Amino acid sequence: MEYLDYLRTRFPETPEHIIIKADALRRGIAFDLQLEDLAMRSCTTGLATRDGRQEVSAPSQFHFCSDDTTVDIIVDEDSPYRIIEKEPEDYRLQIGSLDLGKIYFTSRPGYYDRTTSEGRPVQDYVVQRGPSCLLVTPVNICAYFRGGDACRFCALSVHMDHERESKKLPMIPDYAVLGEAVAIAREYMDIKEIKLNGGSLYNLKKEAQCIEQCLTHILSAAGPIEEATVFSQALEEDQQKRLKDAGATNVFFDMEAWNERLWDQIVPGKAKTVGRAEWLRRLEKAVGVFGPGHVACNFVAGFESAPISGFLTQQESLRSYLDGFEYLTERGVIPSFTVWYPLFDKPSAPKTEYYLELGEGLHQAILQQGLYRDLGFSKFGMDPPTLGLYCYFCRSVQFAQDYPRLINRKIASTATA
Ligand code: SF4
To answer: In which band, very low, low, confident or very high, does the pLDDT at 160 lie, cut at 50, 70 and 90?
Structure first.
């Protein structure tokens, strides 16, 4: 509570829900066990839920009723944030005795009980994020994890292996069945966006082929979808063009870390397969192929200053990222960052003010380059007309996409003392 007040004083221009979101993403949310039945009625596809990091079954996200700001729920019993049921069906986020506002949850999708023609649950193939986004995995394995070149912060690969083995999923799914699963899910939800995000392969050509085939099958089985966003390693220009022809509208070529000196150490697989200089070159090429506002690069912010010998101080890391944001936005690439939820030495990890400074720096960099228009914002205080890179529902482990939505927004507050 005192810390939240401190953040409000230190960032007086930052919208309240951005401050709360950044802090709740970094410190997690205590979840009342009596609310576990909520999980049975809600979407439970948050990364923290799925990779077994938390034992409590909780909805994957909550949304503030007043403005739809969406926050991933990472359960942490030590967190000062708490979700409570004030009255039946009246859920609130609280810190101490302060009610921070009324919240709701995305309903459990109707396709949870459906199976594909080969008898496998649809939910083995698709992951719902928010009310209108589906995520699918073109490759159920990250080769870097097996080859000893995994990104150093990554717990995702463990989750991928665990999920693939527990569900007996093939490393490369049958894309015809995956397309069928998306078509079934579409019967229950208004899919505006499909996201294709799987593991990385040393053989980049193969990775690109898998994504292309996966997307082609989905669109042919489920029909046209407004946006198709691909998360992959930095592909060559001809591979980018093929993906665009197949229906991709946006790409994320995630560098994960910016600092030049540490890059090879933090993402050894990506360094071997593409290399940092070439990665940057391909990001620029992608702006030519997909257009400004359609190419992004994500970072796991804070990891460069993890308490590891030779890593950066938090100030150095902050400076390094702000330089990176400037470099990328000058070239029409949209940087984004995830709040790193450390699995070790939590007290030494960056505090919320680090992330809010980073968020403000990113907002200013995008503003200076005039890129908000390319992201669909003709003015501040509105939700973007299309989801694309600035989807505020599914990218709920981030908060940068909320600046243009929430600045100047007229909100009916639901917070009470
Ligand atoms: S490329 Fe890196 S971040 Fe992505 S799944 Fe593999 S190890 Fe994890």
So the answer is: low
Which ligand 1 atom is the nearest neighbour of the CA of 270? 1
pLDDT tens digits along 302-343: 899 888 889 999 999 999 999 999 999 999 999 999 988 776
Question: Does ligand 1 lie within 6 Å of residue 7's CB atom?
Answer: no
Atom of ligand 1 nearest to the CA of 143: 6
Angle at 227 between CA 226 and CA 230, to 5 degrees: 160
> Does 10 score more than 80 pLDDT?
yes
**What pTM was estimated for this model as a whole?**
0.92
Atom 2, ligand 1: residue with shortest CA distance: 151
Distance CA 259, CA 316 (A): 10
Interval between CA 184 and ligand 1 midpoint (Å): 29
Task: Give dist(CA 216, CA 291) in Å, integer.
Answer: 21
Domain ranges for the chain, please list them: 2-104, 111-406
**Whose C-alpha lies nearest to ligand 1, atom 7?**
150
Candidates 276, 252, 256, 253; CA nearest to 264 is 276
Would you say the CB of residue 154 lies under 6 angstroms from ligand 1? yes
Residue labelled with tokens 């960032």: 11
From residue 155, give the alpha-carbon distance in Å to each of 52, 94, 396: 10, 29, 18
Q: Which fold has domain 111-406?
A: TIM Barrel (3.20.20)
Q: Is 198 touching ligand 1 by the criterion CB < 6 Å?
A: no
130: phi then psi, degrees, rounded to nearest 5: 75, 180
Q: State residue 259's pLDDT score.
A: 96
Q: Which residues contact 106 (CB under 8 A, 6 or more apart)?
A: 42, 43, 59, 60, 61, 63, 128, 130, 131, 393
pLDDT of residue 411: 64
* Residue pointed to by tokens 């099958």: 217
Helix-then-strand count for the chain, H and E:
15, 13
Q: How much distance in Å is there from the Cα of 345 to the middle of ligand 1? A: 21
Query: Which of 135, 152, 156 is the best mutation target for the ligand 1 pocket, counting ligand atoms within 8 Å of the beta carbon and taking the most?
Result: 156
The predicted structure's pLDDT at residue 417: 42
What would the mean pLDDT of 148-164 be, rounded to a whole number?
72
Q: What is the pLDDT of residue 44?
A: 74
Distance (angstroms) between ligand 1 centre and the Cα of 312 equals: 21
CB atoms within 10 A of CB 55: 7
